[in-house]
Amino acid sequence: MMKKIISYASVIFLILLLLSVSKDLTAQQKSPSAYDQNKKLGRGVNIIGYDPIWQSRDKARFTEDHFRIIKEGGFSTVRVNIHPFRYMDQSNNYRLPQSWFDLLDWVVEKAVANDLMVILDFHEYNSMADKPETKKEIFLSFWRQVAPRYKDSPSNVLFEILNEPNGQLTPELWNGFLAEALSIIRKSNPTRTVIIGPGFWNQIPHLEELKLPDMIRI
Questions:
Q1: pLDDT digits 0-9 by tens, 160-200
Q2: Which of 123, 131, 135, 217 lies most in the core, judged by the most C-beta atoms within 10 Å?
Q3: The domain 5-119+134-209: what is its CATH number?
Q4: HEC string for 23-90
């Protein structure tokens, strides 16, 4: 249900960025800085990544009450571990089913209603580590669907492009993958806060290998 507690304030190897392609100063002024977002994250907990709720709502271990319990327990953030590949098939252009989105919509709605920050965390790091070039299209297809779906969500909904890139997804390859994913995200979410970490499991020694697009607003 809830796998591990994360103190996002102390996870310094993750870089929070507000990369904006918007030139509209008014829109930029309304968007919180990544610095402010990071402070708001506070204490966080991973949720529902391995919960059978994804197979059937009737089998769910995580319930609506848990959002309130998490908030009352002193947490500020829920990080939704998302494993979408099993629901995406090349035969239908990797389209995610409506029932899958209905569940994610519910999670976002209830978390926001309980004044929680929300991180939509693409958690297919094990799959992406093996022959990543063959997974690139399904990876990008995920963000082509999810980004516009949540374009009107409040600013306390963040996107984490990929949890802990590793294995054959080398820092060089990852730089290319993340740039393409960001380009997709920015078409519908020009000021959304995005979480990006370096290769080799987000390890600090590899921060210098992380290459980010030129237009960055922190």
A1: 999 999 999 999 999 999 999 999 999 999 999 999 999 99
A2: 123
A3: 3.20.20.80
A4: CCHHHHHHCCCHHHHHHHHCEEEEECCCCHHHCCHHHCCCCCHHHHHHHHCCCCEEEEEECCHHHCCH
The two three-digit tokens of residue 163, written as one number: 């949890």
Q: How many CA atoms lie within 13 A of 114 on its CB side?
A: 23
Residue 120's Cβ-count burial label (10 Å; 0-12, 13-18, 19+) is buried
Tokens of 207: 């921060």
The pair of three-digit structure tokens given for residue 213, joined into one six-digit string: 């697009």
Residue 18 to residues 34, 146, 209, Cα–Cα distance (Å)? 6, 18, 19
Q: Which amino acid is at 198?
A: P
pLDDT score recorded for residue 172: 97
Are the C-beta atoms of 33 and 218 separated by less than 8 Å? yes
- Note the pLDDT of residue 51: 98
Q: How crowded is the C-beta side of 69, counted as CA atoms within 13 Å? A: 8
Mean pLDDT of 28-40: 82
